[in-house]
Structure formats: C-alpha cells, structure tokens
Automatic annotation (TrEMBL):
Domain Peptidase M1 alanyl aminopeptidase C-terminal per the UniProt entry, residue ranges: 562-883
Enzyme Commission number: 3.4.11.2
CDD domains: M1_APN
Species this protein is from: Methylophaga thalassica
Aminopeptidase N-like N-terminal domain segment(s): 30-194
Protein name: Aminopeptidase N
SUPFAM superfamilies documented for this protein: Leukotriene A4 hydrolase N-terminal domain, Metalloproteases ('zincins'), catalytic domain
Length: 885
C-alpha cells in the first residue's frame, strides 16, 4: 500500500525538540458550575515568564471548548487580541507576570472519548492523563508546568451531593437556590494531568491510617450505592500499601485525606491524581461472590500502584511524556515487589515474566517497537504500552540487582529528596542511583535508549583435570524500526551451578582470592562476548542461568530435554525451575506441531509426563507453584516461538498434549482435586489462593479427558461453591462443551448476575474465548445483547478484546473473518473513543509472523482502516506503522 495516499498526516513530536515552557503557572484558581450537558469553567491563572526562556506569545492548549471570554490582568480582550483554533489559544503580547481569566463551556454528556470532564452513569468525572486537561480549559497542558491548584465546585445539591477534587477540603456551603459549593486546595504543586474532579450521588466508606510520624489520615472510597458492600478489600489493600511504602521506601503520605472513586466508564485501570485516585470500577470493587482470586490480587496490586505514585509520579513527576517510564516503570516495579512480599514471591515473578514474554517481547519484535524512553510519537496515548510499564519495571529491577537492596534504597532516598516538587527525566533517576552508590551506569542507560529484546547466548565448557568450568555469554539485539545497529547492553546475569544431585556448587571466579559465599551470583555482561571461569568445580555442573529472570532477554541456551527435566525437578531457584519446565513443554509441543505438519502419528514425550507426574506428587511444593508448572504455554506464546506461526497446528498440538497428560495422570489429578475440595469459607490469602488455583487446574485437566462425568463435576462445583473463582472456573470449562448444559449454565449465570456490571463482563469474556467453532457468530450476537454497550471500554475489552487477543484459533480463521470483524469494530470505535480503538489494533501487531495467506488477509483489513477518512491520530499512527513495517 502506498501510504502517501492516506490523507491525514498528524504532527510528529520529537524528544530532540523539547523546549522548556515559555510561561509558568504558579497558581490556578478553578471554578466549576457543574451540569452534565453544559458545565461552565472559570479559570484564573497566575502566570509568569519562565526564567529559563525568553518573552514571546503565550500559547495555551485547548480542545473541544466553547470560549466565552478572556481577561488579561482584569481587562477583557477583544477578538483581535488573541487567536483561537481547534488545538490552542494564542495571546500575542503578555507582560512578564500576569493574571489570566478564561471562561469556557464544555459538554460532559457528549464526551465519548472519556478524556477531560465526562458523564458516566450518576457521575461527572475527569481523566486528564495524558492530555485531557485541555478539554476542560485553556492551559499549558504539559507535565513540566507545576502549579498549586485551588478548586471551587458549584452544583445542584440533590443531583450532585458529593463533589471532590485534589488536596484537602477547605470550605463548603449551601446556596438558597438548592445548589451547594465546596473548595478544595492542594498545597503540593502538580502538573495538570494530575488534576481530578468527581461529582455524583455516591456512597462513602471511610477508614483511617496513622502514619509512621503519628499523623492521622482519613481514607475514603466512593462507589455507587449498590456497590457499598464491595469496598473492604480495597481499603485493606490501601492500608497495606501505605504501611509497606513507609517500611520499604520511607515514604509517608502528605495530605489529610486519601480518596478513591470507582467509575464504570474508564479508559484505563486507574489514575493516580493527587489525593483523589479515580479507578475503573473493575479494579476496585470486590467480594468473594463477585470477584475471582485474580481480581482480588489485581485490585491489591493496582491500589498499591496508584498509591505508590504519590511519590514516584506525583511528588516527583516526569518532565515530558518521553519520560513516562520514569514514573510508570519505577512504580510497576514497586507494586510488583509489594505483591511479592504480601503473597507468593515465586508466583509473582512467574506472572510478571509471563506477561512480559507474551506481550512486551511481541511488541519489541513488531512494528511498534520503541525504547523505554521513546524518541518520538504522534499520539502519546499510544505509548501507554507494556514496553513503558513492564519493560520499564525490568530496567529498574536490573538497577536494583546491580547496586543491591541497600544501595537501591540509598539511591531512591536521594532521588526523592533531590527532586521533590520537580518534573525530571530518567537520566535524573539514574544519576541519583549513581551518586548514592558511586557507580557508573552510563552503559546501562542504553536500556532506556534502545528498543528490542536482547538475545543472550550461553555456551559452557568443563575441564575435569583443572576442575574449571567456563561460562561463555554472548549478547546481540535484532534491528528494530529506526534502530538498525545496537550497542552492547549492560546485562546482569544471575547464575547458579548445580551438581548431579541438584545441590548448589561453589562459584568462585578464577581471578578471585576469596571464595564466593552464596548460591547465586550476578555476572555483568558488558561486551559482545565474555567468558567467566569458575574454579574448584569438582564435577561438571548444570548451569542455572538467568535466575529470577535477572534481565529481560531471550535466553539461547541449548539444553537437552533431559537437562531441562533435571532443572525442572532439582533447581533451587523457583523461577528457573518453572522456566525449565516451560521450555521442556515448548520443545515437546513444537515437536508435535512438526509431526502434525508431516502427518506423522502423534505421541507425547514420556520424559515430560514423568516430570509432570513428579511435580503433581510433590506435596512439599507450594500448590501455587505446582499449578504454574503444570500449565501449558499459551497458543500465542507458542506461535511466537515459530518462524512462521502455524495457528491450527499449535491449537491441535496443545489440545492433544493436554488430553494425553489428562488421561495419563487422571488418578493423580482426581486425587489432588478431591483433597483440595474440602469446603471452607473463602479467604483471600496466599495459602487459600494456591489451593484454589491447583484445584481448578486439576479440574481443567479432568475435563480434557472427555469423560462426561467431569462436566457434572464442573456443574457441582458451580453449585456448591461460595466464591466466583471456582464458579467461573467451572463455567469456563462448560463453555467449551457444546450442548444444552452449556446454554443452561450460561443463562443461569447471567440471570443471577445481570445486575452486576463487573460479573457480566466475565460472562462476556468466557464466551469470547470459547473453542467451539461458532464463537465469532456468538460474539457478534452478544454485541446486540442488553449486557453490551460499545461505548463502555470494559465491555469492549471483555468481548471484542478477549476474542481478538486470546482466541487465536478463531481470530486467525483461514477465511479472514476474524480480521474483518476487528477492522469493522475499530472503525466504529474510532469515532467514539480513539484510545480504545487504537488498543484493539494490538491484536494485529505480529501480522507478518503468519503464513502468506493470513498475512494478505490481515493486510487487507489494515488497509481498510488506514484509508478511512477522518481517522484519529491514535489509530492512524499505529495502522500506518504496521503497514510500513
């Protein structure tokens, strides 16, 4: 396709073109007269010339605003004294210090993009990150303009009884006409993206937290009244987060009140607005009857993430959006550590790496590959990516690995103290770590600058006479868009050596005098190739490389299936034990795919079966780890391991392997299931979650035996359980079985839970990922169901997103129906909510990895989108990059 024929070409923003803001805003006084159809905003800005800039015209960002009037130092400006267009307001001449009053009107009920101020059910609420504040009033809407905000809200007291904004409540009162008002003041300077406002008829659940210095902080969660019984877990998680941040990072909360509001229509998971976090309702509401273990776990993590932003994102924020990972990568790493400390550290690490490999590695290998600190963007919303968040977290984790826990704490203390109240860069973060530890991380910073997933190749050599073991490490990184040649990374490689009994062996390097005292040591790979020689090694070891996944790399280590089985059974590092099992499964499954392609008789490796049997029999192992070790790699991940993804072959191979494992180990699965089925009241804790995860995994294998009695077992579990975790596990298995029992189970589930939006999304999702051949037809029918609204991002993600991302055998149907369906939905969504539309496009990120017939069908769908008139910048940027790759 000739992309020059595409009419629109939105402006590219470059990091190299960064300039400091010309004018700063010391204080912003905002007055809102709220109404869902027409809200009037009076903005009074106390501005001054930035001493680092030079005088000139004053340009303020603004979109979808009705401008009523402008006053400069009290003087009403005429039309000739300013210029306004669809993106900005420009005043040609202003003094070095001045006060600007701007009156605008906005229309929340028409705002389907869900940016700025919008209407959602019984609420008016805001979403200002990244560039939503410009939809509220004219303002220098960029993160490096730090301002003290005071906000007055006026509204009808009956319709909007609760009115919230950032900071502390200063005053409130009533008018005689049925309206009331409140004034909020945030003493901490912040950028406009952290501004928040919420108004509505809300229930408030309140608690308190005493900080390490004895201050009492009021905690409040606001929800729709019908959800008032779903707040307890979020409040507990919040208090756990506050305590953990004090103990681990020495960070104390700094306002009198901390508030969370649950919103049904939200583009993101949650938003860390200073003192007033706004959450997608799905990420805050939970009871055992309506939320799964994964939901409870996710809520705990997200509540922590947004709270931790109070320091890593709010008190110290990013200078520009290229530095987004400064706050997001660092905070993801913090919330992952929090979850690991409160739950199972091994399972947390496995989940983190699984997500990284499945999504971020694919992003790095595709046309949207970009560095953790990008060089350019067209639409910043497209860079809220797994690279910025999850790979950014891995980069911070590597820094911690290199300087140690104590050194990292010293570095972060210096970072927070040095930059409190500032908007800074990733370089500033690394510099603080360097200065606190007297280390040089200049080569390490390439992790921020270079895209792509490095490949780490491992070779070994053992000299029995000298008792020397050589570990030869080599690094490379494939070309990515705009970066053909890569410089060497600084890669921390955590290594252990195991003897034939699985015991850790000495790891003294040849150049060392003092023996190394530890089971794992971190080697620094900084050259293209380096050899590390270990001495006094009494027998040839098996090297356990990249323990704990110490760097986000692809490991090329040619271990035999027998060696992988050994590590799966004996490695003392839990992550590497799981990882060896996963690699063994991948090898076996790809061999079956090859046999399918050659039309050979299919058989499952006895070696894999014996290892799985040993894991299942090991009652000393954490049941959560057992469940992870018994879970087959996903079809999407298997596809990424093939030069050309064989969609149907992978699906057939995985189904065959699962059935053979299920039949061979049926007595063991049955015994473990029954032993874990003792009825007890639901609790959210690591031990009980582990038991439920293994129980449900056993049930999924038993269902794969095609024994009709197992469907009755699923139904029985659904009827007797007291929690959504086990109920949904049964329903997922029922949905893959055609017949009246399936339809009855789905109808009964919906009738029971149709009043609960979060549970209905689960009902939509389980149908979207069904293996049955009519799944796409069912998805289309569900789009016409009363439960689905295409304007609701959660509905879209639950149904369309799940089908396109997590049902590969049907999304990649040979007739191209899945691709055409996605293209049609993206064009509809682009008119309603460009952010959601752009994110749906991610299902086509790896389109060139498939066979030529599928490539042509995917390309046709991409071209259909690209040639659409008036395409949003969000979708335009992604689709043109996909086609140009």
């Amino acid at each position: 396709m000739d992309l020059s024929n595409v009419e629109q070409s939105p402006k590219m923003t470059l990091l190299a073109n960064y300039q400091v803001p010309r004018y700063l805003v010391d204080e912003a006084l905002l007055h809102f007269d709220l109404d869902k159809s027409k809200t009037r905003v009076i903005s009074t800005l106390k501005m001054r010339l930035n001493p680092e800039s030079s005088a000139g015209e004053c340009v303020l960002d603004g979109e979808s605003l009705d401008l009523i009037s402008i006053k400069l130092d009290g003087k009403l400006l005429s039309d000739s004294e300013y210029e306004v267009n669809s993106k900005s307001l420009t005043i040609a001449e202003v003094p070095e210090q001045f006060e600007l009053e701007i009156i605008t009107e906005i229309h929340p009920d028409q705002n389907t993009a869900l940016e700025g101020l919008y209407h959602s059910g019984r609420l008016l609420c805001t979403q200002c990150e990244a560039e939503g504040f410009r939809r509220i009033t004219y303002y220098p809407d960029r993160p490096d303009v730090m301002t003290v905000f005071t906000v007055t809200i006026v509204a009808d007291a009956k319709q909007w009884p609760v009115m919230l904004s950032n900071g502390n409540l200063e005053e409130q009162g009533q008018f005689n006409d049925g309206r009331h008002w409140v004034r909020w003041h945030d003493p901490h300077p912040k950028p406009s993206y952290l501004f928040a406002l919420v108004a509505g008829d809300l229930y408030c659940q309140q608690d308190h937290f005493r900080t390490m210095n004895g201050r009492d902080v009021t905690l409040r969660i606001y929800v729709d009244p019908e959800n008032k019984h779903k707040c307890d877990h979020a409040l507990v998680s919040l208090k756990q987060s506050m305590k953990w941040d004090e103990e681990v990072y020495g960070r104390e909360y700094d306002l009198d009140v901390f508030m969370i509001v649950a919103v049904n229509d939200f583009n993101m998971g949650a938003m860390e607005n200073k003192g007033l976090n706004i959450f997608n309702a799905a990420c805050v509401l939970a009871t055992p009857e309506t939320a799964t273990d994964d939901d409870f776990y996710t809520i705990q993590s997200i509540v922590a993430h947004e709270y931790f932003h109070n320091w890593s994102g709010n008190r110290v924020t990013c200078r520009d959006w290229f530095q987004l990972s400064l706050k997001e990568g660092f905070t993801v790493m913090r919330d992952q550590s929090f979850s690991a400390d409160l739950n199972s550290a091994a399972v947390q690490r496995i989940d983190d790496v699984n997500g990284l490999r499945s999504m971020q590695f694919a992003e790095d290998a595709g046309p949207m590959a970009h560095p953790v600190r990008p060089d350019s963007y067209i639409e910043i919303s497209n860079f809220y990516t797994v690279t910025i968040y999850e790979k950014g977290a891995e980069v911070v984790r590597m820094i911690k690995t290199l300087v140690g826990d104590e050194g990292f704490r010293k570095g972060t203390d210096l970072y927070f103290d040095r930059h409190d109240g500032q908007a800074v860069t990733t370089d500033d973060f690394v510099k603080a770590i360097e200065d606190a530890n007297s280390v040089d991380l200049s080569q390490f910073k390439r992790w921020y600058e270079q895209a792509g997933t490095p490949e780490l190749s491992v070779k070994t050599h053992y000299d029995p006479v000298q008792q020397r073991f050589s570990l030869i490490l080599r690094q490379s990184c494939p070309a990515t868009p705009g970066q053909e040649n890569k410089l060497n990374f600084h890669i921390p490689v955590a290594v252990g050596l195991l003897d034939s009994d699985g015991n850790n062996m000495p790891m003294q390097l040849a150049e060392e005098v003092t023996p190394y005292d530890g089971d794992t040591r971190v080697l620094s790979l900084t050259e293209t190739e380096q050899t590390f020689e270990f001495i006094h090694v009494s027998e040839e070891p098996v090297a356990s490389v990249l323990r704990g996944f110490s760097a986000p790399v692809k490991l090329k280590y040619d271990l035999t299936n027998k060696q992988l089985a050994f590590l799966m059974g004996r490695d003392t590092d839990s992550f590497n034990r799981w990882d060896a099992g996963q690699q063994l499964m991948i090898n076996v499954l790809l061999e079956i795919v090859d046999d399918i392609q050659k039309q050979n008789t299919l058989a499952l490796s006895p070696l894999l079966l014996s290892q799985l049997e040993a894991v299942l029999n090991d009652e000393q192992l954490d049941p959560a780890l057992v469940a992870k070790m018994l879970t087959l790699p996903t079809e999407n991940y298997l596809a990424a391991q093939m030069p050309v993804a064989d969609v149907d072959g992978i699906h057939q191979a995985r189904e065959f392997a699962k059935r053979q494992i299920a039949i061979s180990l049926k007595p063991l699965f049955n015994a473990r299931y029954e032993s874990l089925s003792k009825q007890k009241k639901y609790q959210f804790n690591a031990e009980d979650m582990a038991a439920r995860s293994l129980k449900n995994l056993c049930l999924s294998y038993l269902a794969a035996t095609d024994d009709p009695l197992q469907m009755q077992r699923c139904l029985r579990q659904m009827k007797v359980t007291d929690n959504m975790t086990e109920l949904l596990a049964g329903l997922r298995l029922m949905v893959d079985q055609a017949g009246p029992e399936r339809e009855h189970a789905l109808r009964a589930f919906y009738e029971q839970w149709k009043h609960d939006r979060q549970v209905v999304d689960k009902w939509l999702s389980v149908q979207a990922v069904s293996k049955l051949p009519d799944t796409l037809l069912r998805v289309k029918a569900l789009m016409k169901h009363e439960a689905f609204n295409i304007k609701n991002p959660n509905n879209v993600r639950a149904l369309i997103g799940q089908f396109c991302r997590n049902n590969p055998v049907h999304f990649h149907a040979k007739d191209g129906s899945g691709y055409r369906f996605l293209a049609e939905q993206i064009l509809v969504l682009d008119k309603l909510n460009p952010q959601v539309a752009a994110r749906m496009l991610g299902a086509l990120n790896s389109w060139r990895r498939y066979d030529l017939e599928r490539q042509e069908l995917m390309k046709a769908s991409l071209e259909q989108i690209a040639t659409q008139k008036d395409l949003s910048a969000d979708v335009y940027e992604i689709v043109t990059k996909y086609l140009a790759a």
